[in-house]
Amino acid sequence: MATIKRLITVALFFLAFMLLALVAASAPGYSDASDTAPFETATNETASITASIKKATAEPLEISAFVTTANEADAEGKVYANDPGAAPGSDISAAGKLNLLGLLEGVGALSDGSPNLAVDRAPTRTEAVVIIVRLIGGEADALNGNRMSPFTDVPEWAKPYLGYAFENGLILGVGGSTFSGIRDVTAAEYITLTLRALGYISGADFEWDKAWELSDELGITGGHYNSNTSSFTRGDAAEISFNSLGAKLNGSDKTLCDHLVDAGVFTGDVANALGAGVIADISGQKQDIPLSQEPENKPATEPATEPEQKPVASDLEWAVFLLVNKEREKAGLNALVWNDELAAVARAHSKDMSLKDYFSHINLDGQKPADRKRAAGLVFRYSAENIARGYRTPEAVVAAWMSSPSHKSAILSDYPVSIGVGFYDYYWTMNMID
Q: Phi first, then psi: what are they for 257, rounded to 5°?
C-alpha cells in the first residue's frame, strides 16, 4: 500500500510540473538581447550604466556620455529612447532658426522635448501679430506696461501684443472694435504686417492686397504669392520673417537684423552662424547682406577684403552649440567657445560610428575620447563627450541629453571652456575640454 501511495504522489508531482511548463510556454516572452538592456557595471576604470525601455522600433534613439578628468577616471552613461518619428532633414528650417534666435516660440513640445513650431498649420491673425512683434524685438516693450487697443475681441494674453502693434501702426483692425483674431491670416495680410514692421506704409509705399509686389522687390518673397494664393502656413510665415531679417529698414542703411543686434536681441556672431541677414533673391539664390553695412563697389584694381574667418561647422552642428550655451546661460554658467579642432575630432567620430556601424565612445581601434583628442594635438585636463544617434534635429538631441542626469551634468559642468560638435548621418558627437 505504501508503494502505491508513493507512486501516486510522484505521478501527481509530475502532472503538476507539466502543467506549469505548459503555462510558462504560453506566456509572452521578452528577450534581453532584443527588447531590454540589463543594468551593468564595468571595470573600475570605466563605470558604465545602461538603461533601456522596450523598443518601439527596430533601432532606438541612443545617447551616451563619457567624462574624463585629469586622473583618467572615466564615466560613461547610456540611455535609450523611443523614436519620436521626426522627419529627417539636412538643414535647419527657417522656423527652427527663428526659434534659436528667440524670435519664434513653439505651441507646446513634441514627444522628444523639442518645441512644436507647428509649421504645417495656418496661423491665426492674433498669432501673426505676436510673431511680428517678436520679429522686431518688441516683445519686452509690449509686455512692460498697459498697452491699449480699441479691439474688444482679443484674448487677455494677447492684449499686450495687439496693443503694442496698434500703437506702432502695425495693425488697423477690420473696422471699429473688431480685430477677428481667430481667423486665419492670409499671405497678403502677413506680408503687409512684415512690410509695416520694416517701416513701409500701406496705401503709400504699397497696396496691402498686392503686398507681395514690394516684398518680391525687396527679396523677402520670391514670386511665390499672388491674388490666387489660398494656402498660408506658419512655415510660410517663418520663411518670410527670416528673409526679412536681411531687408533694409525703410529710409535706413541698416537691416532688421542690424536693428536686432543693436538692441541686444542676439549677437552678430549668432546671426552670421544661422544665416540671418542673408536674403533670398527672386531666382532663389542667396545674396549676402552684411550685418552692419552695404558692400562697397571697389575698383577692380583694389584687392578684395579677406572674409572674416568663420567656424567650420554645419548649421546642425552650430545649432547644437547654441542650444548648449542656452542651457548653460540658464544655469548661470559661462558660455563655451567653439573649437574647430575639437569639432573635427567629434565629426570624425560620428562618421566612424556611422560607416562602421557601432555606437560607443570607444572606437574599434580601442581609442577613448581623450585618446582621439590628444591624437589631434589638443591639450587638456578635463574632457567630456556626449554622443547620440537617430535624433533628427538639434533640439531633439539636446533635449535628450538634458533629460539624462549624466549628459546634463557634462553640459552644465564648471570645467569645460571649449566645445566642438560633429554630425554625420544622424550620429551626433559633442566634445568639450577645459
A: -65, -45
Q: How far apart are CA 154 and CA 161, in angstroms?
A: 10
How many residues are there in the chain? 434
CA distance to 179, 196, 202, 266, per residue, from 169 (Å): 14, 8, 10, 25
Spatial CA neighbour of 276 closest among 262, 295, 261, 298? 261
Cell numbers representing residue 71 in the block: 586622473
Query: Residue 68 forms beta bridges with which residues?
Result: 74, 383
CA distance 127 to 105: 11
Encode the chain (434 residues) as per-residue pLDDT tens digits: 555 555 555 555 555 555 544 433 333 332 222 222 221 222 222 222 122 222 222 344 555 555 554 433 333 443 333 222 223 232 467 888 888 888 988 887 777 667 888 889 999 999 999 999 999 999 999 998 788 888 888 889 999 999 999 999 898 755 678 888 899 999 999 999 999 999 999 999 999 899 999 999 999 998 889 999 999 999 999 999 999 999 999 999 999 999 998 998 888 777 776 777 644 332 333 333 233 223 333 333 333 333 334 455 678 888 899 999 999 999 999 999 999 999 999 999 999 998 999 888 889 999 999 899 999 999 988 889 999 888 888 888 898 898 888 888 889 988 889 999 999 888 899 999 98
Closest CA to 131 of 181, 82, 90, 91: 181
The interaxial angle of helices 315-330 and 394-402, nearest 10 deg, is 40
Q: Which residues pair with 420 in a beta bridge?
A: 431
Q: 128, 190 in Cβ contact below 8 A?
A: yes
On the 0-12 / 13-18 / 19+ scale of CB atoms within 10 A, 152 is exposed
Largest Cα–Cα distance of the chain, in whole Å?
A: 121
Q: Cα dist. 395→88, 115, 251, 327, 383 in Å?
A: 13, 8, 38, 12, 23
* C-alpha to C-alpha distance for 198 and 241, rounded to whole angstroms: 11
DSSP readout, 208-258?
GGGHHHHHHHHTSS-S---TT-----HHHHHHHHHHHTTSBPTTSSSBHHH
